Amino acid sequence: MSLSLHHLTALSLDTSALVALAARNKCDQVCLFAYMPQAVRHRYPMIDAASIGDALGRHRLGVATLEVFPLAADADWPAMAAAIETGASLGARWLTAHVQSRGAGARDALRRVSDIARASGVAVGIECNPYSQALRIADALSLIDAAGTADTELLIDTLHFHRSGDSLESLAAANARVRYVQISDAPAAIADNLRWREAIGKRLPPGSGDIPLAAILSALPRLETVSIEVPDRDCPPDALDAHVAACVAATRALLAAR
């Protein structure tokens, strides 16, 4: 099982520093921001292909996923294609797609991003989450069927899976499409007005909340990569190393018991 460190866990670091932090914690891969809509791009440390390539080679790390590609009718396709090409040159395995359109718009966007990604050797994974048009696994599967993109995978985020109210039975039935999971923990319930802050900035280390992580992992026999996505915006900079180390250790303990 490969361990990846998601950049959202250490958003204050540039990509090279993230790679070094992942290497210190004996992770195998990182997840990087390769594309974001222009309106929010300034909030995220984007890939610098030259420097990140050197850092990956020096630390012998790979790239698990490229974040994050919105499937929308007004998508910036040239920029997305360039981002996929850059990620592919770094050996990225998946790109994360968020479904932002409905009906024919979503279907056509999935076909288009799949064609681009397939040509570059990158797999497309739809992440089900409450901030997209694919809240649950069934929504993503319906879109994949409509688009006829049988090679599209599902990227499972344990927090979003839990908050969506989806079932372990749905997850187990879709396990053939799941090779990658983003792991974090959370309380059983949270006020609706706090969910966005939780998602992007206040998650719990694996095993310290109420998400049934062991059951989720057990439902996925084809799982290959677990990405640690545990942002904590309240974490002081001098405590970031300890935060990441604790999250990695907790994740390893869960996987050892799987």
Structural features, described:
With 258 residues, the protein is α/β, with parallel strands linked by helices. It has a single domain, classed as Divalent-metal-dependent TIM barrel enzymes (TIM Barrel, Alpha-Beta Barrel). The protein is built from 10 helices and 8 strands. It has helices at 15-24, 49-59, 77-89, 103-120, 137-147, 158-164, 168-173, 195-201, 213-218, 240-256; strands spanning 2-6, 29-33, 62-71, 94-99, 123-127, 153-157, 178-183, 225-228. It has an 8-stranded parallel beta barrel with strand order 1-2-3-4-5-6-7-8, surrounded by 5 helices. Helix 4 packs across helix 5 (137-147). The longest helix has 18 residues, at 103-120. The protein is globular. The termini are close together.
Residue stretches low in confidence (pLDDT < 50, at least 5 long) are none
Q: Averaged pLDDT, please? A: 96
Number of domains: 1
What's the count of strands?
A: 8
Give the end-to-end Cα distance, rounded to a whole number of Å: 11 Å
Shape: globular
The helix content, as a percent range, equals 40-55%
- The strands making up the biggest β-sheet line up spatially as 1-2-3-4-5-6-7-8
β-sheet strand percentage: 15-25%
Q: Number of helix segments? A: 10
CATH class, please?
Answer: Alpha Beta
Q: What string gives the helices and strands in order?
A: EHEHEHEHEHEHHEHHEH
At CATH level 2, the architecture is Alpha-Beta Barrel
